[in-house]
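Supplementary notes for students who missed Thursday's class. We covered one full example, reproduced here. Read the sequence, then the structure, then the short commentary at the end.
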Amino acid sequence: MNLFPKDEIFYTLFEKQAEKLAEAAQLLDEILGNPQNLGELAIKMKKLEVEADDLGHNIIDNLRKTFITPIEGEDIDLLRQYLDNIMDHIERVVNRLLIYKIQIPFSKEIREYIEVIKKAILEINSGVKEIRNVSKFQENLHSRCQKLNELENVGDEINRTALKNLMNPSQISPERNLEIMKLSEIYETLENTIDFCEDVGNIFESILIKNR
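Structure (token representation):
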């Protein structure tokens, strides 16, 4: 018997947040496959981001009202923040691709960043489900933490290559300089998205250590 049934609300809301990220990953796939539909897909992404924000606010509301939480309140709040940050940054990338009118097909680096983000979201989606029963899924969660760290390292490599290519253009012109500025911001936002995915892994690790 669960003496604290309200505890379940945090797990449920985290899972819903992770589901929104999974939907965002699917939309990123659609954007890569059908970049000509970017305007329509950007609207869908914004809707997802707003829905994810609402879930985050719901977590905060429940955290304020709950005296005893299933995991430490600080970890609950940090996990909420990092999941929210991932969604915010994904939406920002799509928004910038649209308003900056980035040429299609998108660069190899953008596609590579997105592939890493999609893989990281898969790990996060599974890990969020597993924190409901940390003792049962200790090895799984530890493995996901390692995988998210590895994906962050891959993101770093992509970032180094992307910036190197940007800063060594074959020709210089005002138009090219403007394009470099636009892509630099997009690459930085993609890199930050991957960093936040690793932060989620660090919270999984913290929960593991505190609930052995």
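Commentary. The chain has one domain: 5-210. The first helix runs from residue 8 to 33. If anything here is unclear, bring it to office hours.
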